[in-house]
Backbone:
Protein backbone atom coordinates (compact mmCIF):
# COMPACT_ATOMS: atom_id res chain seq x y z
CA UNK A 1 0.00 0.00 0.00
CA UNK A 2 1.43 3.43 -0.95
CA UNK A 3 1.91 6.27 1.54
CA UNK A 4 -1.10 8.03 0.04
CA UNK A 5 -3.18 4.84 0.30
CA UNK A 6 -2.18 4.43 3.94
CA UNK A 7 -3.11 8.04 4.72
CA UNK A 8 -6.49 7.73 3.01
CA UNK A 9 -7.19 4.42 4.74
CA UNK A 10 -6.47 5.93 8.15
CA UNK A 11 -8.68 8.93 7.48
CA UNK A 12 -11.57 6.82 6.20
CA UNK A 13 -11.18 4.40 9.12
CA UNK A 14 -10.84 1.30 6.96
CA UNK A 15 -8.06 -1.23 6.46
CA UNK A 16 -8.74 -1.63 2.76
CA UNK A 17 -9.95 0.83 0.16
CA UNK A 18 -11.43 0.11 -3.25
CA UNK A 19 -9.16 1.86 -5.72
CA UNK A 20 -8.04 1.11 -9.29
CA UNK A 21 -5.58 -1.69 -9.87
CA UNK A 22 -2.91 -1.64 -12.59
CA UNK A 23 -4.24 -2.98 -15.87
CA UNK A 24 -2.25 -5.16 -18.28
CA UNK A 25 0.26 -3.07 -20.26
CA UNK A 26 -0.72 0.12 -18.40
CA UNK A 27 2.18 2.55 -18.10
CA UNK A 28 3.27 2.70 -14.43
CA UNK A 29 3.37 6.50 -14.40
CA UNK A 30 -0.05 6.68 -16.01
CA UNK A 31 -1.42 4.31 -13.39
CA UNK A 32 0.13 6.43 -10.64
CA UNK A 33 -1.81 9.42 -12.01
CA UNK A 34 -5.12 7.56 -12.28
CA UNK A 35 -4.63 5.94 -8.86
CA UNK A 36 -3.86 9.28 -7.20
CA UNK A 37 -7.01 10.98 -8.47
CA UNK A 38 -9.12 7.97 -7.45
CA UNK A 39 -7.71 7.94 -3.92
CA UNK A 40 -8.23 11.65 -3.42
CA UNK A 41 -11.84 11.27 -4.56
CA UNK A 42 -12.41 9.29 -1.36
CA UNK A 43 -11.31 11.99 1.05
CA UNK A 44 -10.72 15.22 -0.87
CA UNK A 45 -7.98 17.69 -0.05
CA UNK A 46 -7.73 20.35 2.60
CA UNK A 47 -8.44 23.96 1.80
CA UNK A 48 -10.16 23.17 -1.50
CA UNK A 49 -10.66 26.46 -3.32
CA UNK A 50 -8.49 28.45 -0.92
CA UNK A 51 -4.95 27.03 -1.10
CA UNK A 52 -2.66 25.94 -3.92
CA UNK A 53 -2.40 22.34 -2.70
CA UNK A 54 0.42 19.81 -2.95
CA UNK A 55 1.74 18.33 -6.20
CA UNK A 56 1.66 14.52 -6.22
CA UNK A 57 1.93 13.34 -9.83
CA UNK A 58 3.97 15.63 -12.06
CA UNK A 59 6.81 15.32 -9.52
CA UNK A 60 6.01 12.52 -7.11
CA UNK A 61 6.04 13.32 -3.41
CA UNK A 62 9.66 13.43 -2.31
CA UNK A 63 11.33 10.97 0.06
CA UNK A 64 12.19 13.60 2.66
CA UNK A 65 10.29 13.59 5.92
CA UNK A 66 9.04 17.15 5.36
CA UNK A 67 7.68 16.31 1.90
CA UNK A 68 5.86 13.29 3.28
CA UNK A 69 4.36 15.35 6.10
CA UNK A 70 3.22 18.15 3.76
CA UNK A 71 1.55 15.62 1.49
CA UNK A 72 -0.16 13.81 4.35
CA UNK A 73 -1.42 17.02 5.94
CA UNK A 74 -2.92 18.19 2.63
CA UNK A 75 -5.37 15.27 2.55
CA UNK A 76 -8.92 16.10 3.60
CA UNK A 77 -10.69 14.43 6.49
CA UNK A 78 -14.25 13.83 7.63
CA UNK A 79 -14.47 17.23 9.29
CA UNK A 80 -13.31 19.26 6.30
CA UNK A 81 -16.80 19.94 4.92
CA UNK A 82 -18.38 20.59 8.32
CA UNK A 83 -15.98 23.17 9.66
CA UNK A 84 -16.73 26.89 9.65
CA UNK A 85 -14.90 29.16 7.25
CA UNK A 86 -12.09 31.10 8.85
CA UNK A 87 -11.45 34.80 8.31
CA UNK A 88 -8.99 34.29 5.45
CA UNK A 89 -11.36 31.96 3.61
CA UNK A 90 -14.24 34.41 3.94
CA UNK A 91 -11.97 37.15 2.59
CA UNK A 92 -11.22 35.00 -0.45
CA UNK A 93 -14.92 34.42 -1.13
CA UNK A 94 -15.63 38.14 -0.85
CA UNK A 95 -13.19 38.78 -3.71
CA UNK A 96 -14.97 36.42 -6.10
CA UNK A 97 -16.97 37.86 -8.98
CA UNK A 98 -20.41 36.53 -9.88
CA UNK A 99 -18.87 33.60 -11.78
CA UNK A 100 -16.41 32.46 -9.11
CA UNK A 101 -13.25 34.13 -10.41
CA UNK A 102 -11.00 35.81 -7.88
CA UNK A 103 -8.42 36.83 -10.47
CA UNK A 104 -8.90 38.32 -13.89
CA UNK A 105 -6.01 36.29 -15.27
CA UNK A 106 -2.96 37.58 -17.09
CA UNK A 107 -3.31 38.73 -20.67
CA UNK A 108 -0.51 40.11 -22.80
CA UNK A 109 -2.78 42.58 -24.56
CA UNK A 110 -6.27 43.72 -23.56
CA UNK A 111 -8.16 45.48 -26.34
CA UNK A 112 -11.63 46.98 -26.25
CA UNK A 113 -14.03 46.03 -29.06
CA UNK A 114 -15.96 49.20 -29.94
CA UNK A 115 -19.66 48.77 -30.64
CA UNK A 116 -19.93 51.38 -33.42
CA UNK A 117 -18.64 49.13 -36.25
CA UNK A 118 -21.39 46.63 -35.37
CA UNK A 119 -24.20 49.12 -35.94
CA UNK A 120 -24.44 48.12 -39.61
CA UNK A 121 -25.27 44.57 -40.76
CA UNK A 122 -22.80 42.39 -42.60
CA UNK A 123 -23.63 42.48 -46.31
CA UNK A 124 -22.35 40.38 -49.16
CA UNK A 125 -21.01 42.59 -51.93
CA UNK A 126 -20.38 41.74 -55.57
CA UNK A 127 -18.38 38.55 -56.23
CA UNK A 128 -14.81 39.06 -55.14
CA UNK A 129 -12.22 39.95 -57.76
CA UNK A 130 -9.35 39.12 -55.39
CA UNK A 131 -7.95 35.67 -55.99
CA UNK A 132 -8.30 33.34 -52.99
CA UNK A 133 -5.18 32.03 -51.35
CA UNK A 134 -1.87 33.53 -50.25
CA UNK A 135 -0.18 36.44 -51.97
CA UNK A 136 2.44 35.66 -54.61
CA UNK A 137 5.91 34.92 -53.29
CA UNK A 138 7.69 38.10 -52.23
CA UNK A 139 4.57 40.24 -52.58
CA UNK A 140 3.81 40.32 -48.84
CA UNK A 141 7.38 41.30 -48.00
CA UNK A 142 7.21 44.16 -50.48
CA UNK A 143 3.89 45.31 -49.07
CA UNK A 144 5.32 45.38 -45.56
CA UNK A 145 8.48 47.18 -46.57
CA UNK A 146 6.66 50.02 -48.34
CA UNK A 147 4.55 51.48 -45.57
CA UNK A 148 3.55 54.49 -47.64
CA UNK A 149 1.46 56.11 -44.93
CA UNK A 150 1.19 57.13 -41.29
CA UNK A 151 1.22 54.49 -38.56
CA UNK A 152 -2.12 52.75 -38.12
CA UNK A 153 -4.40 54.14 -35.40
CA UNK A 154 -3.88 52.53 -32.02
CA UNK A 155 -6.74 50.27 -30.94
CA UNK A 156 -8.44 51.16 -27.66
CA UNK A 157 -6.42 49.21 -25.10
CA UNK A 158 -7.22 48.42 -21.47
CA UNK A 159 -4.88 48.26 -18.48
CA UNK A 160 -6.90 45.54 -16.74
CA UNK A 161 -9.89 43.31 -17.34
CA UNK A 162 -13.05 45.10 -16.16
CA UNK A 163 -15.55 43.29 -13.91
CA UNK A 164 -18.49 41.49 -15.55
CA UNK A 165 -21.04 43.88 -16.97
CA UNK A 166 -24.13 44.24 -14.76
CA UNK A 167 -27.08 42.14 -15.88
CA UNK A 168 -29.73 44.81 -15.47
CA UNK A 169 -32.56 42.76 -16.98
CA UNK A 170 -31.81 39.49 -15.17
CA UNK A 171 -34.86 39.56 -12.85
CA UNK A 172 -37.60 40.05 -15.48
CA UNK A 173 -35.89 37.50 -17.72
CA UNK A 174 -35.87 35.01 -14.86
CA UNK A 175 -39.65 35.20 -14.74
CA UNK A 176 -40.00 34.70 -18.51
CA UNK A 177 -37.60 31.76 -18.58
CA UNK A 178 -39.29 30.26 -15.54
CA UNK A 179 -42.54 30.15 -17.47
CA UNK A 180 -40.89 28.81 -20.63
CA UNK A 181 -38.88 25.95 -19.08
CA UNK A 182 -40.75 23.04 -17.50
CA UNK A 183 -39.79 19.60 -16.11
CA UNK A 184 -39.03 17.13 -18.91
CA UNK A 185 -38.37 13.89 -17.00
CA UNK A 186 -38.72 12.85 -13.35
CA UNK A 187 -37.32 9.92 -11.39
CA UNK A 188 -39.44 7.32 -9.62
CA UNK A 189 -39.70 9.56 -6.58
CA UNK A 190 -41.05 12.45 -8.64
CA UNK A 191 -37.86 14.52 -8.52
CA UNK A 192 -36.98 16.51 -11.61
CA UNK A 193 -34.24 14.83 -13.67
CA UNK A 194 -34.21 17.12 -16.68
CA UNK A 195 -35.89 20.19 -18.13
CA UNK A 196 -37.52 21.03 -21.44
CA UNK A 197 -39.16 23.87 -23.34
CA UNK A 198 -42.87 24.28 -22.79
CA UNK A 199 -44.88 22.94 -25.72
CA UNK A 200 -46.07 25.68 -28.04
CA UNK A 201 -43.11 28.05 -27.54
CA UNK A 202 -42.09 29.14 -31.06
CA UNK A 203 -38.49 28.59 -32.10
CA UNK A 204 -38.23 32.30 -32.93
CA UNK A 205 -39.12 33.24 -29.36
CA UNK A 206 -36.56 30.83 -27.93
CA UNK A 207 -33.90 32.17 -30.29
CA UNK A 208 -34.73 35.79 -29.41
CA UNK A 209 -34.50 35.08 -25.70
CA UNK A 210 -31.23 33.18 -26.03
CA UNK A 211 -29.57 36.12 -27.80
CA UNK A 212 -30.93 38.60 -25.27
CA UNK A 213 -29.34 36.56 -22.51
CA UNK A 214 -29.95 33.29 -20.70
CA UNK A 215 -30.30 33.99 -16.96
CA UNK A 216 -27.41 32.50 -15.01
CA UNK A 217 -29.84 30.50 -12.90
CA UNK A 218 -31.24 28.74 -15.96
CA UNK A 219 -28.02 28.30 -17.94
CA UNK A 220 -27.19 24.73 -16.86
CA UNK A 221 -30.69 23.51 -17.72
CA UNK A 222 -30.75 25.52 -20.95
CA UNK A 223 -27.46 24.13 -22.22
CA UNK A 224 -28.69 20.55 -21.84
CA UNK A 225 -31.99 21.47 -23.51
CA UNK A 226 -30.30 23.15 -26.49
CA UNK A 227 -27.87 20.29 -27.07
CA UNK A 228 -30.64 17.72 -26.77
CA UNK A 229 -32.79 19.60 -29.30
CA UNK A 230 -29.87 20.04 -31.72
CA UNK A 231 -28.88 16.37 -31.52
CA UNK A 232 -32.50 15.30 -31.97
CA UNK A 233 -32.65 17.34 -35.17
CA UNK A 234 -29.17 16.69 -36.62
CA UNK A 235 -28.49 13.19 -35.27
CA UNK A 236 -25.04 11.89 -34.37
CA UNK A 237 -23.61 11.18 -37.83
CA UNK A 238 -21.42 8.22 -38.63
CA UNK A 239 -24.31 6.05 -39.75
CA UNK A 240 -26.32 6.60 -36.57
CA UNK A 241 -30.01 5.96 -37.32
CA UNK A 242 -31.11 9.21 -35.71
CA UNK A 243 -33.63 9.87 -32.99
CA UNK A 244 -37.41 9.72 -33.02
CA UNK A 245 -37.71 12.47 -30.45
CA UNK A 246 -36.06 14.18 -27.52
CA UNK A 247 -36.95 11.36 -25.15
CA UNK A 248 -34.80 9.00 -27.20
CA UNK A 249 -31.96 11.51 -26.91
CA UNK A 250 -32.55 11.63 -23.16
CA UNK A 251 -32.26 7.83 -23.02
CA UNK A 252 -28.96 7.99 -24.91
CA UNK A 253 -27.74 10.58 -22.42
CA UNK A 254 -28.41 8.19 -19.54
CA UNK A 255 -26.57 5.42 -21.37
CA UNK A 256 -23.54 7.65 -21.91
CA UNK A 257 -23.54 8.69 -18.26
CA UNK A 258 -23.17 5.02 -17.34
CA UNK A 259 -20.38 4.68 -19.92
CA UNK A 260 -18.59 7.61 -18.29
CA UNK A 261 -18.41 5.74 -14.98
CA UNK A 262 -17.20 2.57 -16.69
CA UNK A 263 -14.42 4.42 -18.50
CA UNK A 264 -13.02 5.69 -15.21
CA UNK A 265 -11.88 2.13 -14.50
CA UNK A 266 -10.03 1.85 -17.81
CA UNK A 267 -6.51 2.95 -18.63
CA UNK A 268 -5.83 5.84 -20.99
CA UNK A 269 -2.52 6.49 -22.72
CA UNK A 270 -3.28 10.21 -22.39
CA UNK A 271 -3.52 10.32 -18.58
CA UNK A 272 -0.04 11.76 -18.04
CA UNK A 273 -0.63 14.60 -20.54
CA UNK A 274 -4.12 15.28 -19.16
CA UNK A 275 -2.66 15.52 -15.65
CA UNK A 276 -0.07 18.02 -16.90
CA UNK A 277 -2.76 20.18 -18.51
CA UNK A 278 -5.40 20.09 -15.74
CA UNK A 279 -3.86 22.65 -13.33
CA UNK A 280 -3.20 25.15 -16.13
CA UNK A 281 -6.54 24.87 -17.92
CA UNK A 282 -8.62 27.55 -16.20
CA UNK A 283 -6.80 29.96 -13.93
CA UNK A 284 -8.19 32.25 -11.28
CA UNK A 285 -11.37 30.30 -10.53
CA UNK A 286 -12.21 29.08 -7.05
CA UNK A 287 -13.32 25.67 -8.34
CA UNK A 288 -9.97 24.92 -9.99
CA UNK A 289 -7.53 26.70 -7.68
CA UNK A 290 -6.46 23.80 -5.45
CA UNK A 291 -4.30 21.00 -6.84
CA UNK A 292 -6.41 17.83 -6.84
CA UNK A 293 -9.40 19.75 -5.50
CA UNK A 294 -12.88 18.76 -6.61
CA UNK A 295 -12.71 20.87 -9.77
CA UNK A 296 -9.36 19.53 -10.93
CA UNK A 297 -10.36 15.95 -10.13
CA UNK A 298 -13.62 16.34 -12.04
CA UNK A 299 -11.78 17.82 -15.02
CA UNK A 300 -9.28 14.95 -15.03
CA UNK A 301 -12.03 12.32 -14.86
CA UNK A 302 -14.03 13.89 -17.70
CA UNK A 303 -10.99 14.25 -19.97
CA UNK A 304 -9.79 10.74 -19.08
CA UNK A 305 -13.12 9.18 -20.07
CA UNK A 306 -13.51 11.39 -23.13
CA UNK A 307 -10.03 10.46 -24.35
CA UNK A 308 -11.35 6.90 -24.67
CA UNK A 309 -14.47 7.91 -26.61
CA UNK A 310 -12.88 8.32 -30.05
CA UNK A 311 -9.76 6.44 -31.13
CA UNK A 312 -9.11 9.02 -33.84
CA UNK A 313 -9.24 12.12 -31.64
CA UNK A 314 -7.99 10.73 -28.34
CA UNK A 315 -7.09 13.79 -26.30
CA UNK A 316 -5.87 17.23 -27.36
CA UNK A 317 -5.24 20.25 -25.16
CA UNK A 318 -8.13 22.23 -26.62
CA UNK A 319 -10.61 19.87 -24.96
CA UNK A 320 -9.68 21.19 -21.50
CA UNK A 321 -11.11 24.74 -21.73
CA UNK A 322 -14.35 23.37 -23.20
CA UNK A 323 -14.76 20.70 -20.51
CA UNK A 324 -13.88 23.10 -17.67
CA UNK A 325 -16.43 25.66 -18.85
CA UNK A 326 -19.11 22.98 -18.91
CA UNK A 327 -18.05 21.74 -15.45
CA UNK A 328 -18.77 25.16 -13.97
CA UNK A 329 -22.43 24.48 -14.73
CA UNK A 330 -22.96 20.73 -14.90
CA UNK A 331 -21.85 17.52 -13.11
CA UNK A 332 -19.09 15.40 -14.68
CA UNK A 333 -21.32 12.62 -16.13
CA UNK A 334 -23.46 15.23 -17.90
CA UNK A 335 -20.39 17.09 -19.15
CA UNK A 336 -19.04 13.85 -20.61
CA UNK A 337 -22.38 13.20 -22.31
CA UNK A 338 -22.52 16.67 -23.86
CA UNK A 339 -18.93 16.37 -25.08
CA UNK A 340 -19.81 13.07 -26.77
CA UNK A 341 -22.82 14.66 -28.45
CA UNK A 342 -20.84 17.72 -29.54
CA UNK A 343 -18.10 15.44 -30.86
CA UNK A 344 -20.36 13.28 -33.03
CA UNK A 345 -23.31 15.46 -34.03
CA UNK A 346 -23.05 17.41 -37.31
CA UNK A 347 -24.62 20.30 -35.40
CA UNK A 348 -21.31 20.91 -33.57
CA UNK A 349 -18.72 18.69 -35.34
CA UNK A 350 -16.06 18.77 -32.62
CA UNK A 351 -14.70 15.51 -34.06
CA UNK A 352 -13.38 17.37 -37.08
CA UNK A 353 -11.99 20.10 -34.82
CA UNK A 354 -9.94 17.64 -32.76
CA UNK A 355 -9.04 14.94 -35.30
CA UNK A 356 -5.37 14.73 -36.40
CA UNK A 357 -4.53 17.68 -38.61
CA UNK A 358 -7.51 19.62 -37.21
CA UNK A 359 -9.58 19.45 -40.42
CA UNK A 360 -12.51 21.28 -38.84
CA UNK A 361 -10.24 24.15 -37.88
CA UNK A 362 -8.99 24.53 -41.45
CA UNK A 363 -12.55 24.36 -42.77
CA UNK A 364 -13.65 27.11 -40.36
CA UNK A 365 -10.71 29.27 -41.43
CA UNK A 366 -11.59 28.74 -45.10
CA UNK A 367 -15.19 29.81 -44.42
CA UNK A 368 -14.03 32.82 -42.42
CA UNK A 369 -11.81 33.90 -45.30
CA UNK A 370 -14.69 33.59 -47.77
CA UNK A 371 -16.83 35.78 -45.50
CA UNK A 372 -14.06 38.38 -45.42
CA UNK A 373 -13.53 38.12 -49.17
CA UNK A 374 -17.20 38.62 -50.06
CA UNK A 375 -18.29 40.97 -47.24
CA UNK A 376 -15.05 42.83 -46.37
CA UNK A 377 -12.90 42.60 -49.52
CA UNK A 378 -10.61 45.45 -48.44
CA UNK A 379 -9.84 43.65 -45.17
CA UNK A 380 -9.18 40.40 -47.04
CA UNK A 381 -6.89 42.21 -49.47
CA UNK A 382 -4.96 43.89 -46.65
CA UNK A 383 -4.43 40.61 -44.80
CA UNK A 384 -3.38 38.91 -48.03
CA UNK A 385 -1.02 41.68 -49.08
CA UNK A 386 0.63 41.83 -45.65
CA UNK A 387 1.02 38.05 -45.50
CA UNK A 388 -1.12 37.64 -42.37
CA UNK A 389 -2.31 34.05 -42.48
CA UNK A 390 -5.58 33.38 -40.70
CA UNK A 391 -4.13 30.35 -38.93
CA UNK A 392 -1.61 32.65 -37.21
CA UNK A 393 -4.24 34.42 -35.12
CA UNK A 394 -7.50 32.45 -35.38
CA UNK A 395 -6.32 28.95 -34.47
CA UNK A 396 -6.78 29.51 -30.75
CA UNK A 397 -10.21 31.07 -31.37
CA UNK A 398 -11.58 27.89 -32.88
CA UNK A 399 -9.65 25.28 -30.90
CA UNK A 400 -10.77 26.69 -27.52
CA UNK A 401 -14.10 28.14 -28.76
CA UNK A 402 -12.92 31.64 -27.77
CA UNK A 403 -12.61 30.69 -24.07
CA UNK A 404 -9.12 32.22 -23.94
CA UNK A 405 -9.93 35.27 -26.07
CA UNK A 406 -13.03 36.83 -24.47
CA UNK A 407 -14.23 37.69 -20.95
CA UNK A 408 -15.99 34.79 -19.27
CA UNK A 409 -19.39 36.46 -19.25
CA UNK A 410 -19.14 37.05 -22.99
CA UNK A 411 -18.00 33.47 -23.53
CA UNK A 412 -21.11 32.19 -21.75
CA UNK A 413 -23.44 34.27 -23.90
CA UNK A 414 -21.70 33.23 -27.11
CA UNK A 415 -21.84 29.60 -26.00
CA UNK A 416 -25.60 29.99 -25.45
CA UNK A 417 -25.85 30.95 -29.12
CA UNK A 418 -23.47 28.19 -30.25
CA UNK A 419 -25.49 25.47 -28.55
CA UNK A 420 -28.61 26.91 -30.19
CA UNK A 421 -27.30 27.65 -33.69
CA UNK A 422 -24.37 25.29 -34.15
CA UNK A 423 -20.87 25.74 -35.52
CA UNK A 424 -21.66 28.68 -37.84
CA UNK A 425 -21.60 30.86 -34.71
CA UNK A 426 -17.80 30.70 -34.55
CA UNK A 427 -17.09 31.92 -38.07
CA UNK A 428 -19.57 34.76 -37.60
CA UNK A 429 -17.96 35.74 -34.29
CA UNK A 430 -14.56 35.69 -36.01
CA UNK A 431 -15.98 37.94 -38.71
CA UNK A 432 -17.26 40.30 -36.00
CA UNK A 433 -13.78 40.64 -34.51
CA UNK A 434 -12.23 41.40 -37.89
CA UNK A 435 -15.01 43.85 -38.75
CA UNK A 436 -14.57 45.77 -35.49
CA UNK A 437 -10.88 46.38 -36.26
CA UNK A 438 -11.42 47.12 -39.93
CA UNK A 439 -9.80 50.57 -39.89
CA UNK A 440 -6.72 49.28 -38.09
CA UNK A 441 -6.24 46.46 -40.58
CA UNK A 442 -6.65 48.48 -43.77
CA UNK A 443 -4.71 51.55 -42.56
CA UNK A 444 -1.91 52.46 -45.01
CA UNK A 445 0.72 52.17 -42.30
CA UNK A 446 -0.41 48.79 -41.01
CA UNK A 447 2.21 46.05 -41.03
CA UNK A 448 2.30 42.30 -40.59
CA UNK A 449 3.40 42.79 -36.97
CA UNK A 450 0.77 45.40 -36.06
CA UNK A 451 -2.10 43.39 -37.55
CA UNK A 452 -1.04 40.07 -36.06
CA UNK A 453 -0.49 41.64 -32.64
CA UNK A 454 -3.95 43.21 -32.74
CA UNK A 455 -5.78 40.05 -33.82
CA UNK A 456 -3.92 37.99 -31.21
CA UNK A 457 -5.25 40.17 -28.38
CA UNK A 458 -7.75 39.44 -25.63
CA UNK A 459 -10.95 41.17 -26.70
CA UNK A 460 -13.31 43.00 -24.31
CA UNK A 461 -16.61 44.06 -25.95
CA UNK A 462 -17.54 47.63 -25.09
CA UNK A 463 -21.19 46.62 -25.49
CA UNK A 464 -21.92 42.92 -25.14
CA UNK A 465 -25.54 43.32 -26.21
CA UNK A 466 -24.48 45.05 -29.43
CA UNK A 467 -22.12 42.19 -30.28
CA UNK A 468 -24.78 39.53 -29.67
CA UNK A 469 -27.41 41.53 -31.59
CA UNK A 470 -25.07 41.82 -34.58
CA UNK A 471 -24.38 38.09 -34.50
CA UNK A 472 -28.13 37.37 -34.30
CA UNK A 473 -28.84 39.50 -37.38
CA UNK A 474 -25.95 37.99 -39.29
CA UNK A 475 -26.89 34.40 -38.52
CA UNK A 476 -30.50 35.16 -39.49
CA UNK A 477 -29.33 36.07 -43.00
CA UNK A 478 -30.49 33.03 -44.98
CA UNK A 479 -28.39 33.96 -48.01
CA UNK A 480 -25.23 34.10 -45.92
CA UNK A 481 -26.05 30.85 -44.13
CA UNK A 482 -26.57 29.16 -47.50
CA UNK A 483 -23.24 30.52 -48.70
CA UNK A 484 -21.53 29.21 -45.57
CA UNK A 485 -22.93 25.74 -46.28
CA UNK A 486 -21.72 25.97 -49.87
CA UNK A 487 -18.24 27.08 -48.78
CA UNK A 488 -18.03 24.12 -46.41
CA UNK A 489 -18.92 21.82 -49.30
CA UNK A 490 -16.35 23.53 -51.53
CA UNK A 491 -13.68 23.02 -48.90
CA UNK A 492 -14.48 19.30 -48.76
CA UNK A 493 -13.94 19.11 -52.53
CA UNK A 494 -10.64 21.01 -52.27
CA UNK A 495 -9.44 18.58 -49.61
CA UNK A 496 -10.50 15.58 -51.69
CA UNK A 497 -8.67 16.93 -54.75
CA UNK A 498 -5.57 17.86 -52.76
CA UNK A 499 -5.94 21.58 -53.48
CA UNK A 500 -6.55 22.73 -49.91
CA UNK A 501 -2.90 23.58 -49.22
CA UNK A 502 -3.03 26.66 -51.47
CA UNK A 503 -6.60 27.73 -50.68
CA UNK A 504 -5.88 29.63 -47.45
CA UNK A 505 -4.11 32.91 -46.77
Residues:
Amino acid sequence: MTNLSQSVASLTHTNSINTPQPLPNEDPDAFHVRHTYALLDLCGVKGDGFVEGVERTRARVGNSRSSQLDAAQAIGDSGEKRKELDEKERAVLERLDRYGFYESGSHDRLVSMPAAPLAQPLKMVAPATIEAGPAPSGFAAAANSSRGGPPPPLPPSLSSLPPPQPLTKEVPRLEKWGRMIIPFTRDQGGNIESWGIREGVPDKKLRRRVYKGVPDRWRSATWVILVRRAVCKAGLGGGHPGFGGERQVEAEMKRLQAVYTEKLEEASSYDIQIDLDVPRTIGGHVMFKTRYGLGQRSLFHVLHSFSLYCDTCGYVQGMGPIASTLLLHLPPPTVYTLLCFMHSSPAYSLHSMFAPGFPGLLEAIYVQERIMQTCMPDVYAALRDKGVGTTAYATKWYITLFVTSLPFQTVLRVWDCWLLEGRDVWVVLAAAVVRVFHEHIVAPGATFESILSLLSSFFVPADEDALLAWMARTLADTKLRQSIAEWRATWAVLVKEGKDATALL
